[in-house]
Amino acid sequence: MTTPASLPATGQATAEPPRAPLPADLPEDGLLAVRDLTVRYGRRLGCAEVTFDLWPGEVLGIVGESGSGKTTLLNALTGRVAIDGGRRLYAVPADDGGGWVDLDTLSEPKRRLLMRRDWGIVHQHPRDGLRLAVSAGANIGEPLMALGARHYGDIRSQALGWLDKVEIAPERIDDLPRTFSGGMQQRLQIARNLVTGPRLVFMDEPTGGLDVSVQARLLDLVRGLVDEMGLAAVIVTHDLAVARLLAHRLMVMKEGRVVESGLTDQVLDDPHHPYTQLLVSSVLQV
Amino acid sequence: MTMPAPTRASTPTSEGYNFAYLDEQTKRMIRRAILKAVAIPGYQVPFAGREMPLPYGWGTGGIQVTAAVIGPKDVLKVIDQGADDTTNAVSIRRFFARTAGVATTEATREATLIQTRHRIPELPLNERQILVYQVPIPEPLRWMEPRETETRKMHALEEYGVMHVKLYEDIARFGRIATSYNYPVRVDGRYLMSPSPTPKFDNPKMDRMAALQLFGAGREKRIYAVPPYTEVKSLDFDDHPFEVQSWDQPCALCGATDSYLDEVITDDRGGRMFVCSDTDHCRRRRDAQEEAAQ
């Protein structure tokens, strides 16, 4: 593993906007805290007043039908849509000083460094998360190089190690991702996101568009990696089977709002909200 | 604000044009951009590039920079692919001879202002000289990141790791860094810069060069600069260090072993020779050899 680059020293205090006091109810050993997060698309609502905490090593599933605001929420969390209200707070690792930071008042260089080093984002479509014009090895090596790795041999051996972990044959290392199958591309994307040893991974429908046997293998893989690395993850899915397999806790969304949340078993086996009951009863029992 | 006295038009040979073609306001604007570029080595300064009487890609950026810095006492040399006698070089040299009435030369030693495309002269330049590059694509990150807003942010935050992906691909595919021209450099430990499509053979010459180096991109309307004696470092990997091209034979005309060689096809039966790309360098060496022989 490369040693993670450290955060740049705090710039002039005047450069950063005045900070609102941190919310009082932040969990002491948490990782990510979201309070009243709201995103609007003009007059339409993307998601509204979403509040949750995430702890290290925990997998949070976000389920709901199409258009319920799942992906909007994920994009808001990862900073790809501007938020219209609420707070996003992240607990920086202890070797960086520790403590909670507000992602919306953090300076941009620091936020980008945090995201590069501590976070991974697995997109629904691998082509959004991969560089299709460069080889698989370069795709895995890029996050390492972005964090300052400058030794070709090291980068290459790490890339080979990760190809092995995600069950891609090592001789494909110099092939372009566009010559890969959909499942392989998705696994390559996961390798690229995990190679830097992040603390938190966001996944948007990681198994979307894959056939069931490939889905099963991918889920096994993700579950194994999450366990092994002690990753925290936020997984958006409309597939309740995926949620049951991967997630420790679930949030059910409808029309941009969280209608029910709790432990996965509890939500799926004893749904309270009528919409959750509908969702659970709609699953085909084979 | 006191401005320098306007450049005196010294009997222009073409009627109806200002000295060096551009009007004085435009030259001032370009000079301001140049001053900023010199102050922030390697940073691309936008400027209001003008339409020039030649097509984009033929040196419209370089020609505007030259027009902004040239004075009546300057001696101009223009290089195209190392040669002084190719179309682009001949026409730009004649352009300034006619619109500015300046003296021109093919000798690197005599020139005070050198506009170049694709090469840096073999003869080391001195403090009294200025080297002006013609640049087609000023943004070194363009190949990896198509969004201009994003590349500016990457420059601002020094997020240059992605540039190594290109070099990684070279090694993975060819076993070595095969990029041979437009080889990315880091200027003064800060800005990533494209050295224009010069061969990487010339990259070491840019490092701590005594002459001022100015870069003009006409289509993209950017000017950047490397002040004299500034560090210019070519990117590489720890285990694949930067290296320049080498040839296994000397120049067929002058016997030089330390210059950049062009391959010239001499017939249609596979005949070929390698000669210095810098025509002035080659001629100077041959003259010296003749003198020594006599």
Automatic annotation (TrEMBL), chain A:
It is a peripheral membrane protein. It is found in: Cell inner membrane. SMART domains: AAA (SM00382). Its main location: membrane. It comes from the Bacteria. Residues 1-13 have a biased composition (Polar residues). This is Putative phosphonate transport system ATP-binding protein.
TrEMBL record, chain B:
Keywords: 4Fe-4S, Iron, Iron-sulfur, Lyase, Metal-binding, S-adenosyl-L-methionine. Its EC number is 4.7.1.1. The keyword Lyase applies. InterPro entries: PhnJ (IPR010306). The keyword 4Fe-4S applies. Coiled coil: none annotated. It is an enzyme of class 4 (lyase). It comes from the Bacteria. Pfam families: PhnJ. Catalyzes the breakage of the C-P bond in alpha-D-ribose 1-methylphosphonate 5-phosphate (PRPn) forming alpha-D-ribose. Belongs to the PhnJ family. This is Alpha-D-ribose 1-methylphosphonate 5-phosphate C-P lyase.
